[in-house]
Amino acid sequence: METATMLPEVTAAGVIIKAVLILAVIAAIAGFGTYIERKVLAFMQRRLGPQHVGPFGLLQLAADGIKLFTKEDIIPQHANKIIFAVAPVITAATAFIALAAVPVFPDFTIPLLDIYVPSIASDVNVGILFVLGMMAAGLYGPLLAGMAQANKWGIIGSARTAIQFLSYEVVTGLSILAPIMMVGSLSFVDFNNYQADGTWIVVYQPVAFVLFLIAGYAETNRTPFDLLEHEAEIVSGYVTEYSGMRWGLFFIGEYANMITIGVIASIVFLGGYNDFWIFPGWLMIIAKIAFSFFFMLWVRAAWPHIRPDQLMWLCWKVLMPLAVVNVVITGIVMMIVG
Amino acid sequence: MSLEQFKNRNVGTQNYVKLDLDHTPTSGWCQFKQVVKRTFKPELFVGLWVTLREMINALFRGKMHTTQYPFEKLPISPRYRAIHDMLRLLESGHYRCIGCGLCEKICIANCITMETRYDENQRKEVSEYTINFGRCIFCGYCAEVCPELAIVHGQRYETASEQRASFSLFEDMLTPIDQLNLQQEYQGFGAVSPNADENIKKTPLAY
Amino acid sequence: MSEVQTVDNMVTISIDGVEYKAKEGEYILNAARANDVFIPAICYLTRCSPTLACRLCLVEADGKQVYACNTKVKDGMSVTVDTPNILEERRAMMEVYDVNHPLQCGVCDQSGECELQNYTLEMQVDSQTYAIKDTERHTANWSSVLHYDAGLCIVCERCTTVCKDMIGDSALKTTKRGGDKLDKSLKDSMPKDAYAMWNKLQKSIIAPSNGTGSTDCSDCGECIAVCPVGALVSRDFQYTTNAWDLKRIPAVSAHSSDGFAIYYETKPRSISDRREKIFRVTNEWNFVSLDGSARFGYDFENEDVTKDEKAFANAVEALKKAETIRFNSVISNEEALMLQTLKEKLGVKLYNPEVRPFQKFLKLYSEASGKSLYNSDSTKAMKCDFVVSVGGALRNDSPGLKYAFNNIQKMNKGAGLYFHPVGDKLIPTFGKNVEMFIHKAGLEEASLYLLLDLFADKSKLPADVKDYIESFENGKLIDMLGGDSEKFMAGFDKMMKKKEKFVLMVGEDYYGHPKAENLAKLIVLLEETAGFEVVMNPPKSNALGVALICDLDDEATGYTVGYNENGDFRLSALGDGDLDLPAFNQQEGTVTTLSKRVVPTNVAIDYGGYVLNDLMAELVDAPRLTIDWTPYLPTDKGYKSVAFDDLANSFDNAGNDNRGYLLDVTTKEVELPSVEKFDENATLEGDIVYRCNPPRQFSDFSDKAHQIFEAFGLYASEERAKELGSKVEVVFENGSIEVDVVVDKKMEGNIVALSDFKSAQNVYELFGESRYATVTIREV
Ligand code: SF4
Ligand code: SF4
Ligand code: SF4
Ligand code: SF4
Ligand code: FES
Predict the structure, then answer these.
(1) Cα C443-C447-C450 angle, rounded to 5 deg
(2) Mutate which of A36, A43, A294, A311 to disrupt the B interface (most B C-beta within 10 Å)?
(3) How far apart are CA C469 and CA C463, in angstroms?
(4) Can you give the pLDDT of all 207 residues of chain B as single tens digits?
(5) Looking at the predicted complex, does its ipTM rise above 0.90?
(6) Is the domain C688-779 a CATH 3.40.50.1860 member?
(7) CATH ID of B84-182, from 3.30.70.3270, 2.60.40.3080, 3.40.1350.10, 3.30.70.260
(8) Closest partner residue to A303 among B47, B63, B65, by Cβ?
(9) Is the pTM above the cut of 0.95?
């Protein structure tokens, strides 16, 4: 808390720069994420993955981008045109807005202009709530998209969105409640600082961590919980009728959310951007986010997805009770220790 | 893999492995037990390990599976029936086709057309020969019927082209004369059977 | 003398236990074929004499092994086609044929329709027991059309037989092969007939009979047609396609008036050019023999024609203002009917110098005889045993009648008389009972009087005629006609021995003859008093059809539209006119043949332009298709009201011509005509030119065909040609023409023959109606 007071003043310019930075970098990373995903999945299946566009296939994402941008934009005849058009934007926007309250890089000052760029675009003191809230708001993207497109698969997709996102929001909230209780703040910066001594919260809260991860996967619509658009069952779920850049926006949103989850997990449970041994803080945070991203892919390569009923069963009968128990135990322990 | 395995049509005698599946849980408690068992048994981690191991195999142990197709090609069976080749006589280099027209006759897709004429050496010359590959169904009858082992199926299976006609003229199919030494006999339809000698009755000759 | 098949001359035989009816005196093989029973046979040709070369037709008749092709059926005969012994014999024969036969079916032109292939399979020859050293056998080109590969020849002698018995040229013979003698031991170990067959086979091979390397024949190609293997092939056709790729289109030959049944065999001309092309012409050689024009003169189609609307409009205008339409006989019945319709509706004149004299002559004949048409035809003629040809250069004008003339000599032990001012060295070679009279032009009536003298039942003759004939001293007529009366009368009894059926062939000379009416009447007298059947040779192509359908005029006046002929506006199927029309191989329609048969012909080559029917639709009124005219052919002339598509077009296994239908011939009773005496001094003197084409040439169409190369020219015997030099100017009363002199080695005498097949040369104008003209010939 003391360190914060020593920081230079946060100017509007700095915030805008930070915002642009986040947008640019995260969007790029989200795109890059698709490349990494394909590569990693390929390697795990002993394939080569994309490799012809650019060195090691790096420019594949540029090629995909060009493709997505130039593809014909089709809006189905009976779709609700406005909602259909807005839905992908909701997904992408909420994903990026959520990132506003997440410290993405350590702060720095642009040397010549003397503009201070904060580590976080807007250090709202209810950061975590804001982020989780924004991500939860993201559910309107798939929901509206599925309902607007006048397609059975879309409807099923959006129905699944509703149950899956709403249910797991509970688990996310409850699981993260325990660390919040320990830190006593909703600000990410405080979480980071709390672990500055080198002891990660995951050590105290392993159950909360696991629950958070599971719930996070469900909320980002990742295997094994990718029920919203599971091809084998519902063609493409809520994105069935989408094409071109509209379709692309959903994926930028999804990948941005994956990063957000990675960031939250790293900051809340895995020691944040504190230096670690000889590694500087910025490297540590990148490494952690990267690993958590990689883990998502790894899981996708290794595990099958589950049925909707199993998903609900897991949420309400296993994870939610566990989370509640975890909160209670944490409270008791805090009472005894504190 | 040997052909024998495929020829065995007695279902049940192959090396099938039966999965030892658990019984489906009947009560809620059983289901819970199953979940707990599955959660804490390292099965999930086995899955993670397998994928990671394969990744390591692929990346560092050179066990990548991919064949980079247009640059690398897998060998195909010598009996494969792709775009036809017209073979030459090894001794003289003259094309083998005598223009008998049997392939033209037998072709069920009716896609072979040829022109012949009486040439300067009083022989039947095949002046042009084409196969319409838009129609050919690669049945191999032409190779089978050819008495001269002249028309055979080659190994060119990439038939995407702006003009299929570009595969199909006599000179396109004919072994280039400078590659005569590389010419392979075809082993598929129409090839001489390995025991042909035994099956043939000798005609008596008076000299 | 009637040809009606009564139940009397049918006998009953049984083949393999089944009873069949057969004509008495028929060979077993023909009787079996007529009843659709298969007996293997290679060497036998229907209508020719059996040669017993192949011996495959071995059957058992009443317990004895006989050759089906030369044993006549007897009432109650019981025939077994296969006995174990015969099967063994046949298999051995096929094995023998396969010994040393080159394994070259792959390139052989006959492959696919080769009787050696077929019978080898039929007898299931899959291995060979016999061997003998091969003799070197060469290939040779025998003429412009014939290619002979001795290596492939199985010496079935079909080629020599057809050439001798049917064509009459006898240009081929068997000669020594110089092969090894058969091993004596085989005689006992081999089936008997197979051994005998092989023994003969080893000794002979085929060669031109004149001892040179080339045949010097009429290039009809019939030997090619009958050859069961690939030994004789057409040089032009050789190696150009395989038989099974060809589409067969039944049609009628467009050139001679015989209306030969042919098949155009077509396929796309090349890989890049998919337009159909005629590769060859084939025929049912057992039942019809072609001449060279029919077989080789097939590629006269009007190529690459599209609908030229301007030319069409011009043609309509031209026909509207035309006073005359000039045409020739290369035209179908339907087109003739269209022109006749134009005459009726628009009043144009129809001018056809080729057919007009024939039409007039037919009219004279039917007035005198009461018959609407002559009563014989070429098939009936072949069954006669005494044949007389008058007024025609048989070899040039009428291949079908020439074959009949020859066949009568060979098959019916017949005799023949040939009266013509132009000698033909080939005719006497047809048989030893053939007498040729080379008489002076103008003495045609005398020849008929001689025939009356020789054959007529004098009691039936009108008294004046009888007296007139008797006024000639012994043999005076014969001598007058260029014969040797003593010698002739000495041999005549022998000629007449056992002769029952007489036929008179009347040629084109008579039609335009100044005394045509008298000639027609004399012919009727001959018919009535001497029992002659009469067949006339329509000048060309469909001349009979034109003569019957069109009402022709004697001269052309005013603005003339020529159809394949000269005119102010030219409709032409030759590709050189003002409006293109389809050639004969691009049309469907019917043709009236010499044998009074209305036969259908079909489209072999696509045609993209206008047809005459389109002009008709524009000018008067027309049904949709040309063949829709077919049922409207004039029934009062003998045509029947039958739709084109209902016309049959085939021969049956007994060889009956079932194509189309026969014209109805009506007869009414008339008095015997009264004839005039003839003027002994009305002969032509000086240089005489005869309007006559070389064999194989009939019209611009035969000339257009690439394998018909006989030149337009002045044909002369060798001696006469020497006198004339190489190029001459022939000066007629009303014009002159410059032509090359061409030697015809078979011609005899001083008269020269001027071709008329090029319409552009207008030879008909020079001659007028008569085929003879006195001229001055100058060397240039
Ligand atoms: S493979 Fe079959 S279809 Fe193709 S050309 Fe040969 S015969 Fe015809
Ligand atoms: S079958 Fe063989 S030899 Fe005969 S034409 Fe065809 S390719 Fe030529
Ligand atoms: S003649 Fe007949 S058997 Fe002889 S090579 Fe020709 S097709 Fe074959
Ligand atoms: S050339 Fe032909 S028709 Fe003549 S003998 Fe030989 S095989 Fe017979
Ligand atoms: S057909 Fe009778 S012997 Fe040849």
Answers:
(1) 135
(2) A43
(3) 10
(4) 455 665 666 666 666 777 777 678 888 888 888 878 877 777 778 888 888 988 888 888 888 888 888 888 888 888 889 899 999 999 999 999 999 999 999 999 999 999 999 999 889 999 999 998 888 999 999 999 999 999 999 888 887 778 777 778 888 899 999 999 889 888 888 888 888 888 888 888 877
(5) no
(6) no
(7) 3.30.70.3270
(8) B47
(9) no
